[in-house]
Prior knowledge:
This protein is an alpha/beta fold.
Amino acid sequence: MTSPGPDPAARARGFASDNQAGVHPEILAALTAANAGHQPAYGGDTSTARLREVVRGHFGERAEVFPVFNGTGANVVSLQAMSERWSAVVCPESAHINTDECGAAEKVAGLKLIPVPAPDGKLTPELIDRHARGFGNLQRAQPAVVSITQSTEVGTVYTAAEIAAVAACAHERGMLVHMDGARVANAAAALDLPLRAFTTDAGVDVLSFGGTKNGLLLGEAIVVLNPDAVRGLAYLRKAGMQLASKMRYVSAQLVALLEGDLWLRNARHSNAMARRLAGAAGRVPGVEIRRPVEANAVFAVLPADAAERLRKRFAFYTWDERTGEVRWVCSFDTTEDDVDAFAAAIAEELSG
Ligand SMILES: Cc1ncc(COP(=O)(O)O)c(C=O)c1O
């Protein structure tokens, strides 16, 4: 994503990203509740203890949770714990770790990324086979991890069977599977499956679980699904500056998200708003919806001058400067009125 940020004149609720939304009221209430009294620091608190139980309920008895501050940190610490100094990570070209983390996986974890062209944002066994090369060749960084994103950076969703096939392929070749789940809740809502059905049960080893884009103030979690896949994660989290001393505030938010169905309600809603937007915008002559709308993002192409005028009214990013493709993301707090007003503005700008 290379465009300038949204115009300051844009309306309060735009479509730039799901991390531009505020904090869900139930999360704010959980923060207030967690604020009583003193608690042990660095994860010794009652909220983090409860989070461990809640995460095991979703992902299985072997699951271990490590709350962190942000998604980049979750990815870097996970990948580091899954690999060696001489390792390489196979990922789609569009992977956030490849495009939007300022080279952190390379710089901080010292890993070589092997980005694979995948127009729909998804790796397949065939793509992994073509690009994970040079096993045992001391001239080559050794492919150790396959990293997939669910839902993907281009708004698509892997089925559980597709993930199982990727994991089987990776494991057969001695590699591990990392999932960047910044929007994993949106994928679960889209698939109508429990979280574990396409993570633990599909063979994913480590998940970066996303909270920020689904209503949290801040906070994500590394969820280790296969404890044999990581080494020294607790130390790497600290060395990687992702260990919160007041961890109770990150954990309390994640508990509030995952204990009931808030994670699913929010994700279902943002997905539904994206479908509504794609339907309405897709009916406007001159707008082409470019990709399947499977989660909470819509990718479209429209005339550049109309996109510029529209951007002055609603925030959104250009996804691809070369093609002019734009990205519209819906959030837990996007309303039907927001979508309808945006769709009407799109129609107005294209007719003008
Ligand atoms: C797919 C994906 N992974 C990870 C992240 C992590 O981002 P951050 O480090 O900003 O929390 C993002 C944020 O945009 C993302 O879209």
